[in-house]
Structure formats: structure tokens, C-alpha cells
Amino acid sequence: QVQLVESGGGLVQAGGSLRLSCAPSTDIFSFNFMGWYRQVPGKERELVAQISKRGITYYAESVEGRFAITMNRAKNMLYLQMDSLKPDDTARYSCAARPTTSYDYWGQGTQVTVSS
Hints:
Layout: E1 4-7, E2 10-13, E3 18-24, E4 33-39, E5 46-52, E6 57-59, E7 67-72, E8 77-82, E9 91-98, E10 105-106, E11 110-115
Parallel strand pairs: 2-11
Antiparallel strand pairs: 1-3, 3-8, 4-5, 4-9, 5-6, 7-8, 9-10, 9-11
């Protein structure tokens, strides 16, 4: 069973930065896509950023220009650099892995809280 372990969440003031990390238990390049989702209680889970094996990225409009998703194959890690954070970015962020056509593997998530 694939495991994904996130780290790096926390409390930050508006305008600050955080970097989230995700460690898969298997080769990160065994997945066609890796992504970061976020969820606020009472709302649907939102795809924040995604990166393909080829390095093609996608960002939600709400984070475009502020967040950056990267992969480090040598370290077998996925990252989400979050800059210029806003209170609306407060959510639980989860790493996800997509082997083929759907995100089948999920981490437990890490809480990000942005204070105003």
C-alpha cells in the first residue's frame, strides 16, 4: 500500500510563507501526476496544484503566482512552496498521487493556518 506523509504546515501571518513536503513510500516517478489538495470544513476538496512526471504544472486560479509545486526525484519528495499567504489559504493540505487517471492515494494532511 502506498503511503504519503506530509509535513511543513503550521501557523503563519498573512503575507508569510510556508513550504509543505510530501514523502511517498514508493518511487515518486511511478505516478503520472502528483498533487496538493486542500479542504476547509464544510467545503469541497480543492485541487491547488498538480505536477506531471514531465514537469508540467497546473495551479488553481486562487494560488497562481503565489504557490509553486516541485518534485525532487533524487530525494523522492514533493513540495509546495506557498508565498504571500492569505487568510483564505487556511485549510488542511493533503498530498495525493495519481498513477493513471485518478488520484488513488492520499496523505493524512497537514494544517495550514494563516492569521490576518
